Amino acid sequence: MDTPFQIYATSTAVNLAHAIATRLGLPLHQTHVEKFSDGELFVRFDESVRGQALFLVAKIHPPYENFFELLLTIDAARRSSAREVILVIPYLPHSRQERRDGQRTSISSRMVADMIQSMGADRMITLDLHTNAIEGFYKIPVDPLSSLRLFIDHIQRQRLEPLCLCSPDFGGIKRIRQYKKHVAADLVVIHKERLKPNTVASMDVIGEVRGKNVVIVDDLVDTAGTLCKAADLLVEQGALSVRAYCTHGVLSGQALETIGRSALAKLIISDTVREEMDHPKIERISCAPVLAWAMESIMANKSLRQE
User: Fold this and answer.
1) Quick one: three-class SS letters along 219-263?
2) Which of 192, 229, 266, 281 is catalytic?
3) What is the pTM of this model?
4) Element containing residue 135 per DSSP (H, E)
5) Alpha-carbon span 177 to 127, nearest angstrom
6) 193 bridge partner residues
7) Among this protein's residues, is 139 annotated catalytic?
């Protein structure tokens, strides 16, 4: 494929970028990244990128040096006269902080947007934004892809009948309705009240799950406390089994232990954050095919509409 596009990756996204490049039949180019003894990062392009359009695949979840490496790489590309810098960031951190929940707080997702744009990025591809409002923080085009292409085939192959799709909150109802277009399933939603982040005060299931195989669909799983509490509640109310499909497997703190003790039969995540996962209840599906499709569509000036 003759193209003026080149694919690069930050140091934490090399494996994902290699999978994407392989699917596109393009080479994966390398940057030189060095960490000095005092912790400072140094980024350099070892080949000319003048006049080129770059796809920069990056995983920028904490620690924050991952995000800072991205900013340095964008700046290096701009100072090396790259024509265009297109970011491929499958998981956008700080997406749960898109508004002020009280006084004297920051809107950190807006800060992330400002820093990315101030460095000179021209476009961004991401996967399953926590809330679509974040797209409005960017003046550059943002292409928020859906996890539907990642998970729907896997759900269909499980042959879970009778099937029930569950949204973990009212905000996710639109998501499970998209899934329902492809599978025959009932819909339920979980109503929960939070005391603070990652802590749920009460939880109720709206809908009937007795005698059904329940599939929870969500954009991310962090500490897994709320997810596992929901799975336990669904089983208590008569569900035959509970599985969860979560795009971003952050899995911080005691998440793995919590999942192991819960009634959750299986958790399916993508590799937007973690690339390796050795847990009897967790299965990983690569997001490379979806990202490669989006990048190929951009190269061919085709629509990114997902059916």
Assistant:
1) EEECCCHHHHHHHHHHHHCCCCEEEEEEEEECCCCCHHHHHHHCC
2) 192
3) 0.93
4) none
5) 18
6) 202
7) no
pLDDT of amino acid 3: 63
Residue positions counted in the chain = 307
The pLDDT-based confidence of 277 (bands split at 50, 70, 90) is confident
DSSP code of 136? G
Q: Which amino acid is at 49?
A: V
List, in sequence order, every residue forming a beta bridge with 189; answer none if it has no partner: 167, 206
- Residues with Cβ < 8 Å from 279, sequence gap 6 or more? 256, 259, 260
What CA dihedral angle connects 293, 294, 297 and 303, to 10 degrees? 120
- The conformation of residue 74, written as its DSSP 8-state character, comes to H
- Spatial distance between the Cα atoms of 76 and 82, rounded to a whole number of angstroms: 9
CA dihedral of 26, 28, 29, 33, whole degrees rounded to 10: 170
Partner residues linked to 287 by β-bridges = none
